Amino acid sequence: MNRTLAINNGIIVTMNSKREVFRGSVLIENNRIVQIEKGEKRLKAEEELDATGSIVTPGFICSHTHLYGILLRGAPLKLRPPSDFTQNLQRIWWPMDETMNENDAYISALTASLELLRSGTTMFADTFSGPNAIDGVLDHIEKGVMEAGIRGVIAFEATQRRSEEEGYRGLKENERYIRKDKNEKMSGMISIHASFTVHDDLLREGKRLSDRYAVPLTLHTSEGKWDLYHNLERYGKRTFERLNDLGVLGERTLVAHAVQVNEDELNLIAQSRTHVAHNALSNMLNAVGIAPVPEMLRMGVNVSIGNDGYVFDTFENIRATFLIHKVNKLDPRVISFLQVLEMSTINAAKALGVSDKLGSIELGKLADVVIIKPSVKPTPLNEQSVYGYLVNAVNGKDVDTVIVNGEVLLRGGRFTKVNVEDVNRRAEELVGDYWRRLADAVEKVEVLKL
């Protein structure tokens, strides 16, 4: 039986090839967009949503996250503050990884998915790291994501920092999940931690699996200087030179960060059609530098926006991307409203290989749609001002309605399928236990003596 849903009289930000913006209406049948009308024509359906005074956008897509990063929020860890990114990994992230179990993976996936959904993100690409919870862990993450109802691309982050065998176990878990029968909203990819924690053979094997199953290959690249120094010391090559020589770069490869890169490496990224996930807020948090995104865009690199498991509000990440490059270049003309909105919609869809289905409001595409009702409108909201409103003014709390695969998951700012109070109660219990275990693990690294 067909289900129909109409969104009437909104300002439609299509992100189609012409980047059209107009006042109009959208008709959804089951999980597809079947009609788009310009003007004030009201479309009739079983359920009709009045978008008057609202912005209608495609669902936002986060191209790089770590859902389990949400468990660090407010964690009372007594440790000596890291002085650089490598110490950050050693003192916080790696003990965190080693503490994770299947229940931790599940509750972090559920709560982070809900937070993403609340601010209009309808799809994400997540990598999980937990060396003591590898086999089958992606099923637990899937369970949390499916309870939230969001669309997810998930993977285990293969690494050989503890043993060579462990890296191959990580790839095997990715392959198992890719081959598994799944809900249409879930898919898998190949994930490798970073070039400085794996050998050449694992990188080659990851690329082979990506090609075999026609799925994305994602890895962290040149986030901090240690990645660069490691490759220069061990291989006599910069990070992207090594990856290029191994055949890892390419149209299915999505690299996160790419901060410590030079012009030669940018050329390799551009020429190979490798995609980049930019994580502005996380890069600021870790003090690793500012990726040369304006240069990437000029060279035709497809740049998208991720959150790296830090701040999950879509609009905070969009706004940070819009601003940081202006101050870095001392030029307010750098990065436009449209460019950052492209990075969080159609560019991210391209990076994940789904731009034929998602990333824009167009006939035949899957119905992932967001309705945003700015709580304060001190100036006219219209077709000319809408980009400025989206980038400069709104935040996650202004998201009124989120539709994923034709299903309304957020209405009036409230979740329709999930009891948030119940989730919060479960999370408080499970994460409290996780924090106790994490504190023990962190103390074994280096404790701050008070």
Task: List the keywords.
9-stranded parallel β-sheet, 2 domains, 450 residues, alpha/beta, 39% helix, TIM Barrel, Urease, subunit C, domain 1, 9-stranded mixed β-sheet, 15 helices, disordered C terminus, globular
What would you report as the Rg, rounded to the nearest angstrom?
Answer: 21 Å
Number of helices: 15
What's the oligomerization state? single chain
Q: What percent of residues adopt helix (DSSP H or I)?
A: 25-40%
Kindly identify the CATH topology of the largest domain.
Answer: TIM Barrel
Shape: globular
**Structural class assignment:** alpha/beta
Architecture per CATH nomenclature, i.e. the level-2 architecture of the largest domain: Alpha-Beta Barrel
Terminal-residue CA separation? 65 Å
So what's the CATH class of the largest domain? Alpha Beta
The fraction of residues assigned to DSSP E strands is 15-25%
- Outline the biggest β-sheet: 9 strands, mixed
Count the beta strands.
18
Q: What's the pLDDT, averaged over the residues?
A: 96
Compute the number of structural domains: 2
Residue windows where pLDDT falls under 50 for at least 5 positions: 446-450
Superfamily at the CATH H level of the largest domain? Answer: Metal-dependent hydrolases
